[in-house]
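Before going further, learn to read the protein records used in this course. The integers have meaning only within a learned vocabulary of local backbone shapes. The record below shows the convention in full.
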Amino acid sequence: MTKNRLVSLVATVGIVAASLVAFTPAANAACSGKLKIAYQGPLTGPEAALGLNELNGVKFALKKFLKANPKANVDATVYEVDDQGDPAVAGPIAPKVAAEECVVALVGPAYSGASKVSLPIYLSAGLPIITPSATNPTLPTFGKEIFHRAVLTDDYQGPAAARLIVSKNKKAKVFLVNDASDYAVGLQKTVDISLGSRVVGKDVTPNGTTDFTATIAKIKRSKATAVFYSGYFSQAAVFVKQLRDSGSKIVFASGDGTLDNQFVKLARKSAEGSLLTAPAIPFETASPALAKEMVAAGWTPGVYTTESFDAANFFFEAIKAGNTDRASINKYVSTKSFKGLSKTLKFDAEGEVSGADVNGFIIKKGKIVLLGAIK
């Protein structure tokens, strides 16, 4: 999943560049206390649900690790970094994270827009990261040797989304809509290429749009049988509700930015039948027993909880193996493998994982239902 608000991005990059010099020396200092695992993502704001899903996975992994390894020199509290999924917020706070000498690893950032401004800082500080959900294909160029990704990129999700739509209607005619974010533009591009001549129209509804009347009119004139929306769940809910209120019964499809229980809660009955995709697997599917244990511990799993749980556990394996600083932990996760719930994490030279699937989902009776790997 990616997000990039172009407003303030130039200023943010400037802040990042200036901060590299100011914070890197402190970031390389030795930790004199307990080692800390950080999580970075949106913990407040309209998309906080995704960040909280991931944070819960990290918290649960930490709880289980310390229970199994009570003498481990690891802080019992996750170091929380709230970037609101916004690069303008992530830019100024990333140097502060890098300067925390006891933060030896970070799960995240959740979004690619925030990743693009954070990764150069973490690279300079040698802070290893494993993102559970940032899917922009260009991220390895920003993070280089400290970058690792636990999911497939949009280069895989886009074609999979196209296949899912066509599997439901061999003669599908698709209208594409995106919210102008980095994530949306990138994902739509791969969907567009994959669908080819099946695409009968396109429109852009910038993030924050509240009236989709003009777009809906274009969709109706195009005679499309399906619409693919590239964007996030908060705005997707408004869009699909207005679409259904207009009388349209067109198939509504979207990517991992919409795959959240909040989409169903906000759109209500209008979400019914929506087709969604994500390079993720629900925690309840990956391990029903652990999901039950997690709920009993006070944390509810959601989208990307599984991938965050796996990422955190890979870092804990590194620490358990005797690695207690950023450099050795980074070397461990870069060269070893870890059998997680979602997949076996084994990163290539670019920090990318292999052997994973893009899954399809459908909203049925108010619930997100897994359809399985999209073939």
Summary: The chain has 14 helices and 13 strands. The radius of gyration is 20 Å. The domain at 9-153+284-342 is CATH 3.40.50.2300 (Rossmann fold). Residues 4-27 have pLDDT under 50 and may be disordered.
